[in-house]
Amino acid sequence: MEQLSARVRGLSPSGTIAMNQRARALRESGVDVIDLTVGEPDFPTPQAVREAAKAAIDEGHNRYTPVAGYNDLREAVSRKLARENGLSYPAARVMASAGAKQCVSNALLALVDPGDEVIVPSPHWVSYTELVKLADGRPVSLPTLASEGYKLRPEALESAIGERTKALILCSPCNPTGAVYSRAELEALALVLERHPRVWVISDEVYEHIDYTGLPHASPASIAGIAERTVLVNGVSKAYAMTGWRIGYLAGAAPLVKACIDLQGQMTTNASSIAQRAALAALESGTALIGGMQAAFRRRRELVMGLARALPGVETLEPQGAFYIFPDMSAYFGKSAGRSAVRGSSELAEYLLEDARVATVPGSAFGDDRCLRISFASADERLQAALGRIGESLARLR
Ligand code: PMP
Ligand code: GLU
């Protein structure tokens, strides 16, 4: 439609959300679909957090809040970053937003001028490249290899940086690959970035607490040389099963945070007051309420990996964090089950939705058309049934 801006005409809808909506519509029409699309914990929000929200309603938290979030919430983020990450951010350098997604978006709008390049190691979360484009920037996808644990190598980073490079987006633990960067690996990338002082790092750490490595979470914000240029993004969605509440936060250099707050003041004013009170309770509880969920994700990872490894022709790297597997299923491309041949990840996801009634997200949405993303944030029995059905449908492809 000509009247729409070039900005939205060039925008791809979110691949994760699109498949999730399709699965939802099929389920509502009575089809027994197992939805392994969207990455969100299937647990209820912890009781204490729900109580805090109910109290907030009764206490009359019905007005606009400060644009950057309630002061006590910003203080709680500041304490969380000190306690769990050894980072020192005064509350003034913290902003609460409607989700980590809005934080990434604000950071990009604050940093990127038209034509600036933003390096996005690939496979990457669906929204990064689109948000860069919305900021009139140019996403530069930098492929990483399964054989290297899907991690960006310093030499690859060095060769991708050019005159227009403005930022690098790092996501660890990574959605969709499950890659987790060690401190040493981040230090090696930091050495490259030290030679390019214009380049910022947007560090998406929303899966911090879903990490199977047993090592302390490493943040670029803790590495001298790049700490000042790092925008740390995190939130309560994944750690506390609060995706629908929509609270995330960012922390960074004072001028950058001020710019993000100014943007937010014009765009959304503030994140929901009630959800902010709930997020405050969540953050103040530290990790006390999340052990059960972490143990369940760990168990499900074993379960899903066992089932996926048994699928012939499917190559799956064991995720080190987050709650997805990202198997390479390209061995099935060119095969068919009586109809036209499956030619790529979209058609394979489509086939599995129709034949196995299991909804997954095509790897093409993440920049790798050989793979499918399967979320294991689902009940064990559902996972077992889903992988069983996928196996049967794959076996019909010849
Ligand atoms: N970053 C990544 C890598 C994600 O997977 C998600 C999932 N929603 C987000 C950011 C956004 O999280 P939020 O719900 O806080 O907006
Ligand atoms: N981050 C989750 C996912 O990748 C939620 C959906 C989204 O925001 O993209 O599935």
Could you please describe the fold and organization of this structure?
The model has no long low-confidence stretch (mean pLDDT 96). The chain folds into two domains: 145 residues, Aspartate Aminotransferase, domain 1 (Alpha-Beta Complex), CATH 3.90.1150.10; 238 residues, Aspartate Aminotransferase, domain 2. It is an alpha/beta fold. The chain has 13 helices and twelve strands. The two termini are 41 Å apart. Strand 5, helix 8 and strand 6 form a beta-alpha-beta unit. Helix 3 packs antiparallel against helix 10, helix 5 runs parallel beside helix 6 and helix 7 packs parallel to helix 8. The strands form three sheets. It has a seven-stranded mixed beta sheet with strand order 2-8-7-6-5-3-4, sandwiched between helices. The structure holds 4'-deoxy-4'-aminopyridoxal-5'-phosphate (PMP) and glutamic acid.
Q: In the CATH scheme, what's the topology name of the largest domain?
A: Aspartate Aminotransferase, domain 2
Shape: globular
Could you give the order of strands across the largest sheet? 2-8-7-6-5-3-4
Helix content: 25-40%
Low-confidence region ranges: none
Architecture of the largest domain in CATH?
Answer: 3-Layer(aba) Sandwich
Q: Calculate the terminal CA-CA distance, rounded to whole Å.
A: 41 Å
What is the succession of H and E elements?
A: HHEHHEHEHEHEHEEEHHHEHEEEH
Q: Report the major sheet.
A: 7 strands, mixed
Q: What is the residue-mean pLDDT, rounded to a whole number?
A: 96
* Structural classification: alpha/beta
| Tally of individual domains | 2
